[in-house]
Amino acid sequence: MTQEWIDPVIFSVGPLQVRWYGAMYVVGFLVGGMLLKYLANRKFWLAPKESIDQYVTWLIFGMFIGARLTYVFVYNWDYYSQNFSDVFSVWKGGLSFHGAVAGMCVSTWLFARKHGLHFFHVADCMAVAGSPGLFFGRMGNFINGELYGRVTDSWAGVVFPGGGPFPRHPSQLYEGVLEGIVLFVILFILHRRQKIYGVTCSIFLMGYGAFRFVVEFFREPDTQLGYYLGYFTMGQILCLVMIPISLVMLAYAKKLNLPSVAYRE
After folding, report:
1. Average pLDDT rounded to a whole number, residues 102-120
2. CA within 20 to 30 Å of 5's CA: 81, 96, 138, 252, which one?
3. Is 71 within 8 Å of 95 (Cβ atoms)?
């Protein structure tokens, strides 16, 4: 279907612009903070409740640093090696979700260590509270008309402003629904029933890796990278790394056996 595209700028005040993309990130972190407070009320969050805002701040820094560095060094090093000053030009775009996860895991490990907790105690909460942010982030990508899908003649096709004259899969919406809604529902139900910490964050990595791997078949690959082995994208390769890591984490969580008692009747 064709349509007049959504203006990515919500409003402007002089040179200052408030854009939907940034607003979606803000909403994602606000929702995540509220979910962390919900988990704290239910005794699933084991750190002091007043430390939640600090943790969210750490996550923001970890996310952007990890997302940017991964995009620079994994997705587009040929360009940045010749234009190193642009490494810090985040406003020009270029973030990797796989890198964001890595950065948030580092922040989570540091936070857990500060409060005398195991990484799994905090990571399970991060998985539940953070997954809705994937939905809002992908909605921001959709409004920006970026990270669109491959050309299609299906009813779902959308003509994106920068994607040429042909309809394309709205792969941002596919990812938003699968990773940000379906995965959240799975994790929310799971964490209420789990007996040990470490299961929820492992399932998050596994579920995201599986959903993203599938959606990548509908998503246009990065222009500067194309396909590997003639078929797979860089996103799929990183997902194939993520899934085995999740299985190792799950096995370790079962061996460690950190009991969760918050939701037992």
Report:
1. 96
2. 96
3. yes
Per-residue model confidence as pLDDT tens digits over 161-204: 888 899 999 999 999 999 999 999 999 999 988 889 999 999 99
Check if the beta carbon of residue 205 is closer than 8 Å to that of residue 249: yes
Q: pTM (2 decimals)? A: 0.88
Q: What is the DSSP letter of 19?
A: E
User: 230 vs 125, 209, 234, 259, CA distance in Å?
Assistant: 38, 20, 12, 46
Long-range (24+ apart) CB contacts under 8 A made by 168-172 are 168/220, 169/218, 169/219, 170/142, 171/147, 171/215, 171/218, 171/219, 171/220, 172/138, 172/139, 172/141, 172/142, 172/146, 172/147, 172/148
Q: Measured between alpha carbons, how far is 68 from 85 in angstroms, rounded to an integer?
A: 13
H helices of the chain, where?
20-41, 52-70, 77-80, 97-114, 119-144, 171-177, 183-193, 199-215, 234-256
